[in-house]
Design goal:
heterodimer; A: alpha+beta; five-stranded mixed sheet; 9 helices; about 40% helix; about 15% strand; B: 20 helices; 2 strands; globular
């Protein structure tokens, strides 16, 4: 059933010239489900789309036929007031039938929606992992819970999750309302200050999925993305184990200089690098910054040049972000970047 | 005017009598006169032009947004300005255009359609216009001084609280709501009272034109919906101004309270924009299919059902907030249910067209676009009504597409049809048919080119309210197409403007009834005289101009030298008594200025509420102070036969 409907959808879209030459990304796309929830929603989408398309075509056809068959007139044509006194049984039957049909189709949609809604929340969570995700203007803070709590760790703007395992994400906000949305995995859920929401999901296909804040949260709402990296259990374990470790001490001379500059400058008033004296929590945890794929919540790819450019003048890439421009000279900046690159 | 009228001169049907009648109902000349004007056609015309001006302004803002989004990582318009642009666009279209334009058209048309000389409370009507104008000018003034709102037209707390939105931007926005909602509430009272009490004798409720029904239903919805948003925005103002904690979660308030209050207004608002559009549709379809609408009782009941159901769906804007799942299902059911009354109306119109004889003119074209556009918007609405689907498409471009399909298809296309239809009544001249067709087709095609791709963009992951996007997202092509569509819309609007101005100056002169309509407004001259009807007709049928009366009847005995109007009973429009209506007055204008000082002053200091209430009180007292001349007149005329 789903195959037929999705093929029909593809065909109807292919009929649109605009679709033919546009290449949309597959990694932030509700039509490319990678998890069970997104898949169930997509099934419901196809069913709803099929019903709505059929209704659209039927009503439009009736309407076009009506205006084609009706004879033409002008403003001098006498109005047919006899309709006020004489009943129109055929029209009445047709309207009643159409209303009855519409009601039945609406009931179908309602039932399908209720069943999909139930399916979305009914998932055994036995051996799932728990993540507490907090929205900040304009980045994401993720705390992976663990038992014992000493195995908990914090990261930012990038989630890794094991494929096939349930994931429970508690959603919070430290300031205004944000919304967590990774379309390939699930629908969105708002992060409302003062309330904790929960979303559960399971990813079945390994891959990198992008999400983006979906509730307007001020200036840089457009640049508040996060990546979800779904990988096999073993790989996930390796990653998690690495994230739990404190930052390695720098070994090269320039990296040591960089660390000194970092610890002696303003960086430490916002950032944490575990295993050092930098313990502030206003900005993202940088303990394993070099292991992440992007900088500043998806604003820039994480490379040496971008990192240097970002530290030098964050406002150029993300105006109004909390991070100020750096006071470093270009040599100092290079050293700091080399240090940050050791934070694997 | 200075000599009290102490003797009734009854209108006698002579040309001199007609001149005197027009003189009595006319607005005074000169600058003072135009500020004192209270004739419903003067106010209605000003109101329509003002709201169309705001429509143009909102459209320009939208065009700028489309230019920014036409390619990825565009740096044409900065983040800060873009956020103001979309906030101002939504605010303008919802608060300064869609609702008021519908009321403005009604202020002009309803009295003509029901056989009245005026609206009820004509001075309050003038006051409502002035307060609306000042509110709109205030928010645009603020915008031009870089103090435009930047938190969206929905103003979600706590983003709108002073911690996250310092400065005065949000205060101006919240106060703009006060202005426009005061105006909307007053206009609703004017329209309801006019429809209930000023109908020509014989126009029982089941002879009322469907457009009048639509405006009656809309006005009741305004009465119930607007207080919620005024309460919400007043709470926001006090949060910001005097540190109350309505929406601050840390201090015992709740941001979700804002959402409930806002959408308890916001969802009905969609329907109170849409229902007048349905009224336009019925009026145009019956005239251009040369027959009465099929299923009048069903149409009326469908309007009323829509109004009731519209208050039971607001939570479908909040499906992504963490609310109880079972509760959400109720709102899904209600949101699907409201499709039924709309479906009934659509089927009845198709049945009407099926057995009609069609006069294919521009007004009908605009209405026919409704079937394509609104139908699609309604069907995507069913998708948004589903909790699960909404989780994906909520706050994406899918919603942007949906809401424009609904609001433009359901309200703006019918409104343009209505303008083409009633333009000859307003101005005495017909709009150009050729330009009208060009206007229509460019608008229709441009609209679909602009908004259809947005459905796909939403499914492909593009959230709303982003000022930029990365090239790797692959949204560039569709955004470019959408921007090109917006260009077509802009051209079509330009054609409309040219057509309106040219036709106003030198269009073909229109007769009383250029389209062969059946309702009362077509019985009077185009444009109508100040007093509308020389003699108030006695209504014998639903389409008084189509059905020849068995016996022509008119209301006799109303004065020609005094503003008198027959008041009739609510249900059956039985003559009740002779009402005496007020003369033009400058005080509504002055009161509106005083109230504006209070509203704007309280943006800066809470004490403005105290000291600025003094001029407001003075203006209102002066407005209502019984004048010796008026009292004398009323007493004398009460006694005169």
């Amino acid at each position: 059933m789903r195959g037929i409907l999705s093929a029909a959808f593809a065909v109807s879209l292919a009929a649109l010239p605009l679709h033919a030459f546009s290449q949309v990304a597959t990694f932030q796309n509700a039509m490319q489900p990678a998890g069970v929830q997104a898949e169930k929603i997509l099934d419901l989408w196809y069913l709803t789309f099929a019903i709505c398309t059929a209704v659209f075509i039927a009503v439009l056809a009736a309407f076009l036929y009506a205006i084609r068959r009706a004879p033409r007139a002008d403003e001098r044509t006498a109005a047919e007031v006899s309709f006020l006194r004489q009943a129109e049984p055929a029209s009445k039957r047709a309207v009643l039938l159409a209303v009855a049909l519409s009601t039945i189709l609406l009931l179908v949609l309602l039932v399908a929606d209720v069943f999909t809604g139930r399916a979305l929340i009914q998932m055994p969570l036995g051996d799932g992992i728990h993540i507490e995700l907090t929205g900040h203007r304009w980045w994401w803070e993720a705390r992976y819970s663990a038992d014992p709590p000493s195995r908990m760790f914090t990261t930012a703007n990038e989630l890794h999750i094991p494929v096939g395992k349930p994931v429970v994400i508690s959603l919070k906000s430290s300031d205004v309302i944000h919304s967590f949305w990774v379309p390939n995995l699930h629908g969105k859920k708002d992060m409302i200050p003062g309330r904790t929401a929960t979303i559960t999901l399971r990813v079945d296909k390994p891959g990198i999925y992008r999400g983006q804040c979906a509730e307007f949260c001020g200036y840089q709402h457009a640049k508040m993305a996060l990546l979800v990296i779904a990988e096999p259990q073993e790989q996930y374990e390796v990653w998690a184990e690495q994230q739990r470790q404190p930052a390695p001490a720098p070994t090269t001379a320039s990296a040591i200089t960089g660390q000194k500059l970092f610890m002696g400058g303003t960086c430490v008033s916002c950032h944490t690098v575990r295993g050092t004296s930098a313990q502030a929590t206003l900005g993202p945890d940088l303990t394993h910054l070099a292991s992440r794929k992007t900088l500043a919540a998806g604003t820039l790819p994480n490379s040496r040049e971008h990192l240097a450019a970002w530290i030098n003048d964050p406002q150029k890439f993300k105006l109004m972000a909390n991070m100020p421009s750096s006071p470093f000279s270009s040599e100092q900046l290079q050293a700091v970047v080399l240090y940050l690159e050791t934070l694997k | 005017m200075s000599v009290p009228v102490t003797e009734r001169v009854v209108y006698d049907g002579t040309p001199e009598g007609t001149v005197e009648l027009a003189e009595t109902w006319r607005d005074p000349p000169g600058l003072m006169g135009s500020l004192s004007a209270i004739n419903h056609k003067t106010i209605g015309r000003r109101f329509i032009v003002t709201t169309m001006g705001f429509f143009a302004a909102g459209g320009i803002l939208a065009a700028l947004m489309r230019l920014q989004l036409m390619r990825p990582e565009n740096d044409l318009i900065g983040m800060d300005l873009y956020n103001q642009l979309f906030s101002m666009h939504g605010t303008t279209m919802m608060f300064l255009f869609a609702v008021p334009v519908m009321q403005a058209v009604a202020i002009y048309l309803v009295p003509l359609m029901i056989g009245a000389r005026t609206v009820a409370f004509p001075r309050m009507n003038a006051f409502a216009y002035w307060i609306f104008l000042f509110g709109g000018l205030m928010i645009y003034g603020a915008f031009f001084f870089n103090t435009g709102p930047d938190a969206g037209w929905f103003g979600y707390a706590p983003l709108t609280e002073s911690e996250y939105s310092p400065g005065k931007r949000i205060d101006f926005w919240a106060q703009m709501i006060t202005f426009t909602e005061v105006s909307a509430l007053l206009e609703a009272i004017v329209i309801i009272t006019t429809i209930f009490k000023l109908r020509a004798p014989g126009m029982t409720m089941n002879r009322m034109p469907l457009y009048v029904w639509a405006m009656l239903v809309t006005s009741f919805m305004v009465l119930f919906a607007m207080p919620a948003v005024m309460l919400a925005s007043t709470g926001l103002i006090t949060d910001r101004l005097v540190n109350t904690h309505f929406y601050r979660s840390g201090d015992g308030g709740d941001p979700v309270l804002w959402q409930h209050l806002f959408w308890f207004f916001g969802h009905p608002e969609v329907y109170l924009i849409f229902i007048p559009g349905l009224g336009f549709l019925s009026a145009i379809i019956e005239t251009f299919s040369r027959r009465p609408i099929f299923g009048y009782p069903a149409m009326v009941l469908a309007l009323i059902a829509t109004a009731f159901l519209a208050f039971g769906l607001w939570v479908h804007h909040m499906f992504t907030a963490n609310l109880p799942e079972l509760g959400k299902t109720f709102f899904t059911a209600a949101s699907l249910l409201i499709a039924i009354p709309t479906a009934i109306q659509i089927f009845c119109w198709i049945a009407t067209l099926w057995k009609g004889r069609l006069n294919f003119r521009t007004p009908l074209l605009f209405v026919l676009a409704f079937f394509f556009i609104l139908l699609m918007g309604g069907l995507t609405g069913l998708m948004l009504a589903s909790v699960s689907l909404d989780l994906q498409v909520h706050d994406t471009y899918f919603v942007v597409a949906h809401l424009h399909y609904v609001l433009l298809g359901g309200a703006v296309f019918p409104l343009f049809g209505a303008i083409y239809y009633w333009f000859p009544k307003y101005t005495g001249r017909l709009m150009n048919e050729r330009l009208g067709q060009w206007n229509f087709w460019l608008f229709f095609i441009g609209f679909n080119v602009t908004f259809f791709p947005m459905h796909l963009l939403g499914l492909y992951g593009m959230p709303r309210r982003v000022y930029t996007y990365a090239a790797e997202m692959g949204w560039g092509t569709m955004n470019l197409i959408s921007t090109l569509g917006a260009l077509l819309i802009a051209i079509s609007m330009l054609l409309f403007l040219i057509n309106a101005v040219r036709s106003y100056r030198k269009g073909i002169k229109a007769a009383n009834d250029p389209w062969g309509g059946g309702t009362l407004e077509w019985a009077v001259a185009s444009p109508p005289p100040a007093h509308n009807f020389d003699v108030i007709p006695v209504v014998h049928a639903r389409y008084p101009l189509w059905e020849a009366p068995k016996k022509t009847g008119y209301v006799a005995g109303l004065a020609a030298n005094h503003r008198e109007q027959l008041i009739t009973s609510v249900i059956d429009a039985q003559p009740d008594y002779r009402g005496s209506f007020p003369d033009p007055s400058i005080w509504p204008f002055i009161s509106a200025i005083a109230a504006s000082i209070l509203f704007i002053g309280s943006i800066y200091t809470p004490w403005a509420v105290v000291w600025a209430s003094i001029p407001v009180s003075i203006a209102l007292i002066a407005w209502f102070w019984p004048r010796k001349k008026e009292t004398e007149e009323d007493l004398a005329l009460e006694k005169s036969p």
